[in-house]
């Protein structure tokens, strides 16, 4: 009788295991180099010679001032979190590292939203605010999104907007859907 109960319990455990939800894929196993979609006119990660290691590197804590004093840094003051339009933080980090790697490549936008990076539906979107057009170095767009990645995370989800470094007219939104 006892052995029959053990057999039934063992069988149920095996069936339960077969239908268990798969574990999430670690960011280091996602092929960001091939799934990252750059914005219009921007080079692909392959063209830049980027690797998955480059795209999954943790975001640096230090913001390079580029001549902006910490007191005057609009990046620290203007971010806004949007918990209803979020995406995976690992995917957002890949976009940050991609845009940062573009360094002084211009990231220009108009009043209509312009996707600068998309990974698994996590979009970094630029839009000119209070101007017809706006342009910043792509590295400054990345640093603008850093405040969202630093301050707008719930669990493994992130969403919100901020402005590109040194350009209060270029709004950078990180979202899982078009906003």
UniProtKB/TrEMBL annotation:
Signal peptide stretch: 1-20
Domain of life: Eukaryota
Keyword check for Signal: yes
Alphabetically ordered keywords of this record: Signal
Protein name stated in the entry: Uncharacterized protein
Top-level taxonomy: Eukaryota, Fungi, Dikarya, Ascomycota, Pezizomycotina
């Amino acid at each position: 009788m006892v052995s029959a109960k053990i057999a039934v319990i063992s069988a149920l455990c095996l069936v339960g295991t077969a239908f268990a939800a798969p574990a999430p894929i670690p960011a280091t196993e996602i092929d960001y180099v091939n799934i990252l979609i750059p914005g219009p006119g921007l080079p692909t990660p392959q063209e830049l010679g980027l690797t998955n290691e480059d795209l999954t590197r943790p975001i640096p804590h230090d913001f390079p001032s580029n001549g902006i004093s910490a007191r005057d840094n609009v990046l620290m003051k203007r971010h806004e979190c949007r918990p209803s339009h979020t995406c995976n933080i690992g995917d957002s980090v890949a976009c940050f590292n991609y845009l940062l790697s573009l360094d002084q490549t211009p990231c220009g936008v108009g009043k209509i939203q312009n996707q600068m990076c998309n990974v698994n539906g996590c979009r970094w979107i630029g839009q000119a605010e209070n101007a017809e057009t706006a342009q910043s170095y792509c590295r400054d767009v990345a640093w603008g999104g850093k405040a969202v990645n630093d301050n707008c995370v719930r669990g493994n989800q992130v969403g919100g907007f901020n402005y590109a470094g040194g350009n209060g007219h270029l709004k950078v939104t990180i979202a899982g859907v078009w906003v």
